[in-house]
Amino acid sequence: MTASWLPNLLRSPLAALISEDCTVTLVDQLNILEPHCLRHALSKGLGLGIVLGGCVVKLPQLFKILKSKSVAGISLSSYILEILANVITIAYNFRKGYAFTTYGEALFIGAQNFVITLLIMSFTGRAGLGVIAGALLLAFTYFLFDISLVGGSLLSTLYGLTIPLVISSRIPQIYTIHKNKYTGQLSAFAVFNYFFGTAARLFTTLVEVDDSLVLLGVILATIANGVLAAQMVYYWNAQAPKDKYRLDTKKNK
After folding, report:
1. What is the mean pLDDT of the chain?
2. How many domains would you assign to the chain?
């Protein structure tokens, strides 16, 4: 075996990420153009970056709400649908044994989405309903991870339903922006990171996950996030409506 020039402190985590064989090829032997390992390393690097990005992607949105004490222009139903999709995605990928770098952002984004959903409910006078929703979400999550309660075929069906669910979670927000001609308190950082994150996830899915359901979901999510990103650019300098905006919960359901 070729001796490694990289200190073990750095080499060990790298080997854990991209595999020992590819570390030998790309690092020890400096054969950085070897196709298989190059694709694998790029996929792992992108995947790790997406997961790390998922840890902070919704924080600007959360801080924007807290600072303005307003949820104007933010669709409650979009967040509820997205949380359901996050939970099902985590359970499906975990039980399939896929690498955490191919889906881990769903865990962190889901947690941030839940906090934002509680804020929306709080600012619209439904804090008590948020507590009930949290309890139901925990029960639902438990069922998904218990194979005796939710079998593999049922979980696959549920995951298949997340594909239209993810699209549905974007439609209320897209419609809200289109109707108001204004992005309100929606965070540009979150929107653009979602779009670029799902676009990068296409590559990692093609390289690491041999699952047509996962691939279809990522493709459609990229398209939906692309529409939101385009709206953000189009209405970048749009002013708030003259009438004071009120979050109409019924219209956003």
Report:
1. 85
2. 1
